[in-house]
Structure formats: C-alpha cells, structure tokens
C-alpha cells in the first residue's frame, strides 16, 4: 500500500539491545531453533467480517454469520481465524478506525455474540486472532474527543500535536498513506494532529507511557476472554519519531514490543503476527527470534511490492517476474531458516486476489489457483488463507471508483486525478491493485446475492459468483477447495513441511518455481509451473529417476521424477521421495 517513502525510512537498528535483557538472551543454537509451539503447524484463515456472511439480512456480514460458517471452516481444516476488526467504529476505514476497543460494532453484533464465537470456534479446535489496531484510533474514540478539547486536556498527549509553521501551514511535508498531508489542522486548539492514514484515524502517541498502559490493559482484557492472539495492524509504525521524519522502524519500536510482550501475551500460549511493510529479513528476525520475546512472526510484503512500480507504487502495476519472486522468497526462507519464522500469504483484505495477480483468472483459473496454493503451502512458515481464496475468487472490474468502497482507493484516486493522471490509467491501477478486489462479498452459492445476504449487500458482488461459489466447490472433489483441504491435512501429517530445510531447485528457470524440503530422511520435492505454457524440464542429477509418493497435484498423481519432465500449463505437484525408481 504505502508510499515508497515510508518503506525506505528506516532508522538504524542496533543489535546492542539484544544483549541488554539479562538472562533472556542466549546464543545457544538449540534455543534459537523453531520450538514446538502450536502455531508453527497451524493454518490461518482470514475473515473480513463485513463481507463474509450476513445472518440478519441488513447487507453487512456479521458475527452470527461467521458462527454459522464455522462448520465449513472446520471442514476446510484451518486452526485459527484472524478476524479483521469487529470493534465499535464509525467505519471510515471499515473498522480499522476504532472508537471502542472493548465493544463490538452494532452492525457486527454484540459482545455476547463475540464470546459465543470464541466458544463455538474453540469447540471445533479453532482459535480467534483479534486485529489489534493501535497505531491510531478513530477520531470518535473518547480519548481523541477529549484530546481535541483543549491543549491542557489530560488526554492531549495521547495523540501527536504540533504547532503550525509561522505561515499557518502544516508542521512539515509528511504524507498520509491515504493521500494528502499527514497533518490535520484542528481549529479549536490551533494545532495540527498527525495521521498516517485518513484524517479520521489520528495516530496515538506511543511515547506516552499512559497510552502503552491503556493498550496493554485492553489486550489483557481480550486475552482473558480466551482469544488465540493478535494480528497487529501496521505495528512497525508505533516507534515513530515524527520530528525526525521517521515513521516505520522507529528507534522505540522493538523496546515497545518487548514491553508489550512482557505486560500482556508473553506468558500466554498465543500467536502474534505483526503487519510490517518495512521489514527486511534481518528486521523480521528481530521481531520473531524467540529469545527476544517480541512476536511469533510478521507479515512481510517484499514479494507483494515486486508487482508495483518502484516509484509510483501500486497504482502503476508492474508485470510479475517469477525469477525476482523466487529470489525474494528464497532469501526470506534462508535468512529465517533457523532463527525467526515466516508467515506465508498471497493476499489479504488489502491486496488483489491471488489468482488474478499471479495466476490466470480465465482459462486456467482452477489449475493456477491450485498451483499457487501448492507453491505456498509447502514453504517453511505459517500459511494464511484469505476468505474466498480457497474457492479461487477473482478481482472485479467495476466502472466507478465509488463501487470499490475503499478509503484508500478513493483518496488516491482524487489525489492522482488532481495531479493529472487520467481516469483510465487510474482505473487500470484500481483493477489491478485496489483493496476492493478482495472485499466483495463471499460467494456461498449460486442464489441471489451469492448466498451472502438476504438483503442488498453493502458492496457489489462479483458477477462470476454463479460459477465460483462454495456450494459448487464442496460438491466437486476436484475443486480448489478440496485441494486446499489436502494441503492443510498434509501439513499436519508431515513434520518436514513445518520444520524441514528449504533448498531452491532450478533457480534460474523463468517459468518454474521448484524447491525441496528435507528433515532427516524425509524429503519432499515441489514443482510449480507458473505459466500457461507447456514447459520441458531437464532435472538436475540428484533429482533424476526417483520414485515416491504423490502428495498433491493438479493434473493427476505424479509418482516418479524421470530425467525429463513435461509440465502442463500451471501444472504443480509435490512428491515425497522414497527409493530410486525401478
Ligand atoms: C493496515 C490494514 C488496512 C488499514 C490500515 C490502517 O494496513 O490492513 O486495511 O487501512 O492498516 O489501519
Ligand atoms: Ca448483518
């Protein structure tokens, strides 16, 4: 999403901090290696509640709708649901603008229903991750309502205020990720407040210990309800130093997370995953090395931004280049091989649909969606599935930007059109990368409104729901859904998928992503054709003439690796290697 500027702005990371934690830090390789925590072999399913399932027919998805679909998720086999925000919110950014962290938005349901969701999920061995959005609040949060009343209000310091320049203009040139200045003038008190997202999402001042304590208290309140952990929204921004123009990876970031860990989830058996657009593999290690006591893992976006223009960002898409992609994934697999942990994903509520971006949403939709799933689920790390991905949902082409119902797309559309970009060019960017692509309502069946709602959905539905929907997928043993089911099951059965070493194969090949995983004498080879063409392969010497067990495939079982392989369009398979072929 975010402007290049923010990615690049990284403060110096010192390793000195590592040694300052008394007995906690150990250099023993043993202790640094992946432990047996439950989340290492978990598969996580992300729900965007507005668009998942609407139980009461008002057009907006809700908690009761989610409860009604838990059996479906159990059938899929996932262990964790990451719930995008369901807290009370004016919905300026669809819930990523929270006005009460300890209550549920009425359109989603009640706290009692949330407790029921946690309990009903637990009965099916599914845990719930809450979305922790604490870089900012809503402007309707009582803290902000107080803060803007006067300069000496006790809550003033919960946010970031600066005086105007002498000519009355904003304190500096920093930009919001949703377009425009990051500073908004507040007439009552004559100062500007800082917001990295919409002006209705004022940034919290994490330098204020009271803010930290309030957030810790709130987190413990949720943990006491038995949740499975947190997904932490833009968490790499909380250590910011606005006066030095540093937003991501600020100097206070890692100490803040260590304090949060100690005060809240550290002693509990939960999963934490940070959203960190600015993470490099080395930075991800700082977050996820167990001895540092920060987070379980982070989401990195280096593979995602490869299809964005380096200067212009997501609105000027760039073609996918498999060799670049393999370089990035290989690097992350390698750097986090023994210390730290990867999260694995193709898409989420902020990104386009995987099959549209990396596969072929037309002729080879089914083959390519399965291929993408296989390519990702055999990597080392914890896989995330975004709602609808498991049935191969695709991007949409709406005529008007308004139909995308997204603060970011709208904000940037206005800003860029004003700067002279043509409507057509901007719409192409939106078709490729708007967050709205992922947010159209879930397709449950071929009935009106895709079985999502009895009423008029809050957002237009993708017209292809009659063909692409859950009911059809459940009925068809060859569906993408059943392919995901197999992948999830395999991860539980084969420790090599969770813990094995990663070795890239055919590294220079422009169309094939292949790799091997190995743990003791368990060895799995995974081969994926990322193109719609036939590919002739010559296998390297150590892979020739081996037979094994076909674990998963999209064109029928493959049990043997010969010397030469012909791959069908988007063909993909994994073989557990055994003995040399007779
Ligand atoms: C994260 C969320 C995104 C939201 C933003 C501001 O990037 O994933 O949806 O708009 O943070 O909270
Ligand atoms: Ca509803």
UniProtKB/TrEMBL annotation:
Which keywords belong to this entry? Answer: Glycosidase, Hydrolase, Signal
Recall the GO molecular function terms of this protein's record.
Answer: alpha-amylase activity
Q: Which Gene3D superfamilies match?
A: Glycosidases (3.20.20.80), Golgi alpha-mannosidase II (2.60.40.1180), Oligo-1,6-glucosidase, Domain 2 (3.90.400.10)
Glycosyl hydrolase family 13 catalytic domain residues: 46-439
What the entry lists under CDD domains is as follows: AmyAc_SI_OligoGlu_DGase
Annotated signal sequence range: 1-31
Say which domain of life the source belongs to: Bacteria
Identify its protein family. Belongs to the glycosyl hydrolase 13 family.
Protein name as catalogued: (Trans)glycosidase
């Amino acid at each position: 999403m975010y402007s290049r500027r923010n990615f690049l702005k990284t403060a110096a990371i010192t390793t000195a901090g590592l040694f300052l934690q008394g007995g906690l830090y150990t250099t023993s390789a043993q202790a640094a290696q992946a432990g047996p925590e439950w989340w290492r072999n978990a598969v996580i399913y992300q729900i965007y509640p507005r668009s998942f399932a609407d139980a009461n027919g008002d057009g907006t998805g809700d908690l009761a709708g989610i409860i009604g679909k838990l059996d479906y998720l159990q059938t899929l086999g996932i262990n964790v649901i990451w719930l995008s925000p369901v807290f009370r919110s004016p919905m300026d950014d669809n819930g990523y603008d929270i006005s009460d962290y300890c209550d549920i938005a009425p359109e989603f349901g009640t706290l009692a229903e949330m407790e029921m969701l946690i309990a009903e999920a637990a009965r099916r061995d599914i845990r719930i991750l809450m979305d922790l959005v604490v870089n900012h609040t809503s402007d309707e949060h009582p803290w902000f309502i107080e803060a803007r009343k006067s300069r000496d209000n006790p809550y003033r310091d919960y946010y970031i205020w600066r005086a105007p320049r002498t000519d009355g203009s904003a304190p500096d040139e920093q930009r919001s990720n949703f377009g425009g200045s990051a500073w908004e003038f507040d007439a009552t008190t004559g100062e500007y407040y800082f917001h990295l997202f919409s002006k209705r999402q004022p940034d919290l001042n994490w330098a204020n210990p009271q803010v930290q304590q309030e957030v810790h208290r709130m987190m413990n309140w949720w943990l006491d309800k038995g949740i499975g952990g947190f997904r932490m929204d833009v968490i790499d921004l909380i250590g910011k130093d606005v006066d030095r123009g540093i937003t991501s990876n600020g100097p206070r970031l890692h100490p803040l997370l260590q304090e949060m860990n100690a005060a809240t989830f550290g002693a509990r058996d939960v999963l934490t995953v940070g959203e960190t657009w600015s993470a490099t593999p080395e930075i991800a290690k700082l977050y996820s090395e167990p001895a540092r006591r920060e987070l379980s893992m982070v989401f990195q976006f280096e593979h995602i931004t490869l299809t964005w223009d380096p200067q212009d960002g997501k609105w000027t898409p760039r073609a996918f280049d498999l060799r670049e992609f393999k370089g990035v994934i290989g690097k992350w697999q390698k750097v986090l091989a023994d210390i730290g942990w990867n999260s694995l994903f193709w898409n989420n509520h902020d990104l386009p649909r995987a099959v549209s971006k990396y596969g072929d949403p037309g002729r080879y939709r089914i083959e390519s969606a399965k291929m993408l799933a296989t390519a990702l689920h055999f990597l080392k790390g914890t896989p995330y599935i975004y709602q609808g991905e498991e049935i191969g949902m695709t991007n949409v082409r709406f005529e008007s930007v308004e139909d995308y119902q997204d603060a970011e797309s709208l904000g940037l559309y206005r800003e860029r059109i004003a700067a002279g970009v043509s409507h057509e060019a901007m719409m192409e960017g939106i078709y490729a990368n708007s967050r709205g692509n992922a947010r159209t309502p879930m397709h449950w069946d071929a009935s009106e409104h895709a079985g999502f709602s009895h009423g008029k959905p809050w957002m237009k539905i993708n017209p292809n729901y009659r063909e692409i929907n859950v009911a059809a997928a459940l009925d068809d043993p060859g569906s993408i859904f059943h392919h995901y089911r197999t992948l999830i099951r395999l991860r539980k059965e084969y420790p090599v998928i969770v813990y094995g070493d990663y070795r890239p194969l055919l590294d220079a090949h422009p169309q094939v992503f292949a790799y091997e995983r190995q743990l003791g004498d368990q060895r799995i080879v995974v081969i994926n054709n990322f193109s719609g063409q036939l590919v002739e392969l010559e296998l390297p010497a150590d892979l020739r003439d081996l037979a094994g067990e076909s674990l998963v495939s999209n064109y029928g079982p493959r049990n043997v690796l010969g010397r030469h392989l012909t791959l069908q369009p988007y063909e993909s398979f994994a073989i557990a290697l055994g003995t040399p072929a007779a």
